Amino acid sequence: MSYLALARKWRPRNFSELVGQSHVRTALENALGQGHLHPALLFSGTRGVGKTTLARIISRSLNCETGVTATPCGECSACREIEEGRFVDLIEIDAASRTKVEDTRELLDNVPYAPARGRFKVYLIDEVHMLSKHSFNALLKTLEEPPGHVQFLFATTDPQKLPITILSRCLQFHLKRISVDDIAQRMRFILGEENIQAEDDGLRRLARAADGSLRDGLSLLDQAIAFGGGQVTDDSVRDMLGSIERRDLLALASAIADQDSAVAWQAIEHIAEQGLDFAEVLEEFCRLWQRLAVGQQVPEALDELEQADLGPLLERFSAADLQVFYQIAVNARRDLDWAPDPRSGFEMTVLRTLAFLPDQGPAAGAAPAGGAAPRASVAAAAKPATAAPVQARATAAPQPAPAAQPAPSLDGVQWNTLIKQLDFSGSTEVVAQGCRIAGQEEQQLTLEVSPQVQALCTASVETRMREALRQHFSRPDLVVKFERPAKTDSGESVEDIARSPEEKFLALPSVQKAIDMFDAEIQPGSFRMHSDAPGDNAIH
Q: So which residues are the signal peptide here (predicted)?
């Protein structure tokens, strides 16, 4: 007995039956209707999204006996022969098995000849990226100037491997992965035509397992029909795929909401008894938090079954909780290979989720002897309880006034430290770094301005420095004098010449900046004279 697989039996025969790919369908229908179809088309995309199907629909559209049309009749001899794979002018080539340049040259030798049966001679090359470099070179001239009766249709899952010279001569259409909803809807339609009973949950589970490929989904559907004895139920599909039951996931999520680690551990044990792959369980764990987050923000995005299952949990977690739990689960999937085994990785994911919940008192995180009390809401746990009304406001005792802080003393003040405390900026900072304390008295501070910054020491700069010092020492009557020593022929002041080499070294702006930057202190007696260095008083 001969059985035709669902993927072949229900292969789309025209553009209206094509699942998804509306962007490609619209462009091709318009091109065929206007007679502006490009002679070389490249279809790229993952497996089972309709690349070869589109190529055969185009072949029907070009060779239908009713004429070139976007809606081939499907009844004429040309349409039927193309569907059955015996149309002489549709040359299908598997590039994976014919990679040699000799095969390509043999193919191109027949290009100039007119079609034997139809209106166009169509060359359909599947997995075209498998051709050799020399084969691509042999195609270049023909692709650039093809005969009017020839149509090239290329299909590939890896367009990046095609030479840029080939891509530039083709019109490329990238086919998207088919959504879960579209795959499930197509399955539902096919099962209705086949008079087979099916549960929506089982179909959606198959659609998710198809991973964007309609052909894979229909192959799984064939398997599910055989496994379920002529019908498709969620239980049979779950057993066939080795998936976790939704009620087990919901029980685990409820235990997390109650912060009942004992019940959560029992749920993990129950999952392990079913012999499930914990990598797949962790994937469903991620999807659970994602659907809960979607249900909170966009309730209408959940179908009726999801609303019934997830509804009781939606109010038990805050939006922030769900975001954290989802991130924990996603990171656990990424790091699962580093765990000792998949079960250990999943167990730590659940325990980490419990650890991130707000504490519920001293026994939070531990199962009480009599069972954990239900937890109304994780978000509510973080809210403080409403305070009882105050009967009478007690008169607050007067607080003692804080003790006055003594004003800084002028005795032994360090100028470099003082500059840092005053927080000067701009030209005032430059002048302050070029000053040194020349004298200190009870009510007077004398600053000596170095010759290098005397030009910047204007009256306004002096006023800013004077006011800052008075405010710092809390002495409005403090007298601040600025002295400008005379310069010698060498550019140094007389006082500078009289200073020791150690004092000159400490007065350098670069040294002061280093002291301020590293909060350093100069150790007494740490200076050493270097006799070999230029100058009489070189210091290290």
A: none
